[in-house]
Write a structure and sequence with these properties.
It is found in: Endoplasmic reticulum membrane. The chain is of the alpha/beta class. 43% of the residues lie in helices and 16% in strands. The protein has one domain: Rossmann fold, CATH 3.40.50. The two termini are 26 Å apart. The structure holds NADP nicotinamide-adenine-dinucleotide phosphate.
């Protein structure tokens, strides 16, 4: 479905918001919540294919029939698809005020229940249960572009999208915001500059989310002057298609009473996509200039079910971040050479 044309500049300046991973979970809840905040936004939902885009659009319109919702198809694991989507958006839009880089995968996950049991005995269980450190590993694979799939989907596809949309994001009369859905699983120990796609390890998800944090830090340094600000958020532990791939739905349902109890101690057990989108929605209402680039904004839910946002410092080595960014640029150069026909020259 093509987007309705935007009003000419000077007419009502509604905010234009793009959300990736809008078809389910946090992304879908976020779309609905953004329309509750401001029903005049032009919401563009980015989904993997036309069928999912249309289903997402219809589901949003069912609750907000007068909302302005357009769609764009993007498979973030395919560079050609990302370049096509960016070209499509450049042709259709005059600017973008918010881009939520939210799509993500956590495939082929293995849980180490023995490590969790040992954590219970050594007092580390709460840390393990809130960060998945030491209890969750993945088996990754190469995608059609020859990139590690988790890196490509969670970070690199989004990075290329942002780079290709710079003309819509920078130099606008109002600042624009990138909001990356990172995770509390983002861990420096899972990331290495020499294997930044994480081909050799078994923590590709943590690595990709740490790489996301590094990227956001550098984007702020490079683009704040041009009016583009970048933030990272963690939705907390949310029951979604992503978590249902770790354990079957019925197991999660059986565990639910325990998780409600854990929530009294672990406020990042947000559990529902609505709660998980709290930090994303909070950022929608902030002045980007007032945000701290070295903070991750966590969606939290109290034991009694009250939602709030907790900023937590992120510890990134800025030199590593810069070096990693250089590597992303090198990889981008190689990618763009291959897909020259999809660029507007
Ligand atoms: N759930 C949690 O506990 C948790 C915790 C921390 C961080 N997160 C992060 O939160 C974000 C949203 O996850 P969620 O929990 O809402 O899971 P979800 O319901 O599985 O949503 C993931 C979204 O990403 C999309 N997606 C996946 N691969 C894609 C691709 N190649 N191209 C385009 N879109 C793609 C999915 O689209 P399809 O419908 O087409 O698959 C879906 O819309 C992710 O970045 C995740 O890493 C989640």
């Amino acid at each position: 479905m093509a987007a309705p044309a935007l009003p000419a500049v000077g007419e009502r300046m509604e905010r234009v918001v793009l959300v990736t991973g809008a078809s389910s979970g946090v992304g879908l809840a976020l779309c609905r919540r953004l329309l509750e905040e401001d029903r005049r936004i032009h919401l563009c939902v980015a989904c993997r294919n036309a069928q999912r885009s249309e289903a997402t659009r219809e589901s949003i319109l069912a609750a907000h029939p007068t909302a302005r919702v357009s769609t764009v198809e993007v498979d973030l694991a395919s560079l050609a698809s990302v370049l096509r989507a960016a070209r499509d958006l450049r042709r259709r839009l005059q600017r973008l005020d918010f881009v939520y880089l939210n799509a993500g995968i956590l495939p082929n996950t293995h849980m180490d229940f023995k490590a969790l049991w040992q954590g219970l005995l050594t007092g580390k269980a709460l840390h393990m249960l809130t960060t998945a450190e030491g209890i969750m590993t993945q088996t990754d694979r190469l995608n059609g572009d020859g990139l590690q799939e988790v890196f490509a989907t969670n970070l690199f596809g989004h990075f290329i999208l942002v780079r290709q949309l710079e003309s819509l994001l920078c130099g606008n009369e109002r600042p624009s915001q990138l909001i990356w859905t990172s995770s509390s699983s983002a861990r420096e120990s899972a990331f290495s500059l020499s294997d930044y796609q994480h081909a050799k390890g078994q923590e590709s998800y943590s690595s990709s989310k740490y790489a996301t944090d590094l990227t956001s830090v550098v984007l702020n340094k490079k683009l704040n002057k041009q009016g583009l600000y970048s933030s990272v958020v963690c939705p907390g532990l949310v029951m979604s298609n992503l978590t249902y791939r770790i354990l079957p739905v019925f197991v999660w349902k059986l565990l639910m009473p325990i998780m409600w109890l854990i929530r009294f101690f672990a406020k990042t057990y947000t559990l529902t996509p609505y709660n998980g989108a709290e930090a994303h929605v909070w950022l929608f209402k902030q002045k980007p200039e007032s945000l701290d680039a070295l903070v991750k904004y966590h969606s939290c839910t109290s034991g009694l079910g009250k939602n709030y946002v907790e900023p937590r410092k992120i510890y990134v080595d800025e030199e590593t971040a810069e070096k990693f960014y250089e590597k992303l640029l090198e990889l981008e150069k190689q990618a763009l050479e291959r897909y020259d026909d999809l660029l507007d020259n």
